[in-house]
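Internal tracking record. Fields below are filled automatically when a chain is submitted to the structure queue. Please do not edit lines marked as system-generated. If the sequence contains nonstandard residues, flag them in the REMARKS field before resubmitting.
Queue: standard
Priority: normal
Entity type: single polypeptide chain
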Amino acid sequence: MKKIILLFTITVFFFTNTSAQQSSDDGILKVLAIGNSFSDDAVEHFLYDIAKAGNKKIIIGNMYIGGAPIVLHVKNATADKKAYSYRKINLDGEKNVTKNVSLAEAIGNENWDYISLQQASSFSGQYDVIMKDLPKLISYVQSLAPNAKLIYHQTWAYQQDSKHKGFANYNKDQTTMYKSIMDVTKRIDKSKAFAFIVPAGTSIQNARTSSIGDHFTRDGFHLQLTYGRFTVACAWYEKLFNEDVRQNPCQPEKISALEAKIAKEAAHKAVKKPFKVSKIKL
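SYSTEM-GENERATED OUTPUT FOLLOWS
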């Protein structure tokens, strides 16, 4: 992905130029995440590069508020609040960051093929908390983008020594947190409200069984900047394009051949078995 970042504080001209009122471009997959720093980790850094290496055209959007839970997205939607940093990676790989954007503006910015929803990480294994507000967010998004398919981003368990205060929700135990997230995402998957689950959490848990071990975060919960983020981006790629990511030639400059192989294997196995850990013998 190109490193050029353009900052905007006034959004009207930006949105006019790329309005969803225009006809969609054939052969371009357009995906919008409504999330937080975990969607930043997942889609903003390597997904474009993997798609490009696979000769795929993609536009990526991320509606970002750090730590945002589903309930906050619902409040912002109800109030039509311009509360987000809208990060958009265009067809040429350039990222534009637009401040003070509402959900309605971003949803209307493109004819999105997929719109991703997720819970804040500390509540991602708590079904009752999620379901208080998830149906409202689903209804809101579908009312504005009836042709877009919804996907659910399954987040990852924290590193075992994480100091995140939300880790207490899972007795400060990685396995407990992972199993809780799996139980929740299984139930969400069975609801048929989403086209599919992106098994980011299982891709990381798989990768932790490799020779790299439990070193896939940079602070106990956000992903490690190179192979950590690459692992989850591989899972997104395989789900979005229905192609075996192990056959994709992408190997970013700062990622070793072994790290890339582990990431791709972990992601591929997560797509095959999204709710169960598969060991990586690398």
